[in-house]
Amino acid sequence: MKQIALAVTTVISLFGTNAVAADLAARPYAKAPVMVDPGYNWSGFYVGGNVGYSWGRERDDGTLSGVSSAQVFRTAGPTPVGAPVVTALGAVPVWGRSNVDGVIGGGQFGYNWQQSNWLVGLEADLQASDEKTSGTICVAVGCPAGSALFPANYKLDWFGTVRGRVGWLASPRILLYATGGLAYGHLDASAPAAGIGWGGTNAGWTVGAGGEFAIDRSWSVKVEYLYMDLGSFNGASASATTVTNALNTPGVGFNTVTTTTTTANFGTRFTDNIVRVGVNYRFSGPVVAKY
């Protein structure tokens, strides 16, 4: 009896094992899902702020010219003797160089289009500036001793740029880019001793490069360098008249009065080296899963 029960149990065990194996073989193989880190997409609008420092440079260039008129008078008269002798003075250079440095700060906004590992975008910014200095306008290149014409003050009040950006993604969250486009700004220049002021708003160009790191889907930080050339602010002009009286010239009983009028015409060119750090907030930045 025990032998019959053992045989039945063995047969049932064999049939059960074969049925389970057949059932497993009949089921399709399903691979377990792989957990992946979603990639970061830079496309979309963004807005942000920045702060930095600028090393500017102003360059004054032009000419100083004039005319001298000498008239002889009789001392007892005074009665003019003959016609005045008018002499044109040769033109001499007007020259000046000064560093215009200071802190800057402002805001930016733009839009990015990402395609694979490449990015193109547009960005505009507007900056307040504390760049200012005092310099000297001279009548000789290099301002040697005795050539100073008058002191001058310079201040870059504000500037802005409108630039294109072309970037490459070194990793999903690290963007390296080059940038360039339009620059514009307002320079205030004056020479109180000469009673003149010049400058105004002018447009030029800018180029630069930077790097940006995405903290999360919305926030990123950046470091950027720009070289900016605002061109030449023309229209500065200063005139001065001096009168000298030489007694007993050209002889006893005479004196010569000489009137000299000089006019300086020059322009100021402004360039800048800018380093700034900033933060951006990106709108509608989709997350794209990569498998």
TrEMBL record:
The keyword Signal applies. This is Outer membrane protein beta-barrel domain-containing protein. InterPro entries: Beta-barrel_OMP (IPR027385), OMP-like (IPR051692), OMP/PagP_B-barrel (IPR011250). Residues 1-21 form the signal peptide. GO terms for cellular component: cell outer membrane. Residues 30-270 form the Outer membrane protein beta-barrel domain. The keyword Membrane applies. Belongs to the Omp25/RopB family.
